[in-house]
Amino acid sequence: MAQHKLIVDCSTGVITEVELTAEELAQREADATAFAEIKAAEEAAAQAKAEAKASAEAKLAALGLTADEIAALSL
Amino acid sequence: MANTYEAIATVTVGSGGAATMAFSSIPATYTDLVLKMSLRYSASGPQDMRLTFNGNTSAVYSMRSINAAGSGTPGSASETAQTSTWLGSLQGVTASTFNNMELYIPNYTSTTTAKSISTDNVNEANQTDARSFLVAQLWNPATQAAISILSISVASGTFVQYSNATLYGIKNS
Fold first, then answer.
1. Which residue, B103, B92, B67, B105, is CA-closest to B160?
2. ipTM for this model
3. What is the pLDDT along chain A (75 residues), one digit of tens a residue?
């Protein structure tokens, strides 16, 4: 399905609808890819942080801290 | 709103959606520009939004942002030497709910200085995936020019029907 661009000419107020050019489509694809990579990196970082937190809590529990004591540390 | 605001033009998306909204032939008769938008994404999102000026896609855009969502740790991001600049993201996750965004562009007619832009973007979702962004952008082309074309795009999918953008000019007198 063709992708469209709405253009308003501020000197006349006339709005035209045109298909995106090949260059614009390529730019759009590059932007989408870049955004997907950023999102994946953010999710990986959040996952790594959650796993590190769980690991730290497990080690503290193994040392004998109660769940309330671990929660009090605000990890 | 100050009485020095003047609506220049409005674009409203029709039933077919639109990947890009653009303002051309922007008059050079104001001191600043403000673009106010109500936007909704065609999928749940979030999805990236980008901005260009004068059709320029050289690697001359940069930005720095702070952002927060309804859950998780607030974050930040930055880009340099990009072919467009980031405006934050766009959502369509909650039915009939639109995102709000405003761009402020001072000194847009200068032919000697780079253009700084500030963006305030709220992805309202009425749930934990709601997001907000404050973004500072710079357009610094090799040859400085007045802004005459402004283009907002979503990286994939479309802006849905009833999404709209109004460009205002501001005079200092």
1. B92
2. 0.90
3. 678 999 999 999 999 999 999 988 888 888 888 778 877 887 788 889 889 999 999 999 999 999 999 999 876
Whole-prediction pTM: 0.85
Fold held by B3-73+80-172: Jelly Rolls (2.60.120)
Interface check for B55 against chain A (CB to CB < 8 A): the answer is: no
Look at A10 and B167 and tell me if their CB atoms are within 8 Å.
yes
Sign of the alpha-carbon dihedral angle for B149, B153, B155, B158? negative
Q: Which residues pair with B138 in a beta bridge?
A: B62, B116
Rounded to the nearest angstrom, the minimum Cα separation between A24 and chain B is 9
Domain boundaries, chain B: 3-73+80-172
pLDDT, tens only, B113-164 = 999 999 999 988 777 778 899 999 999 999 999 999 999 999 889 999 999 9
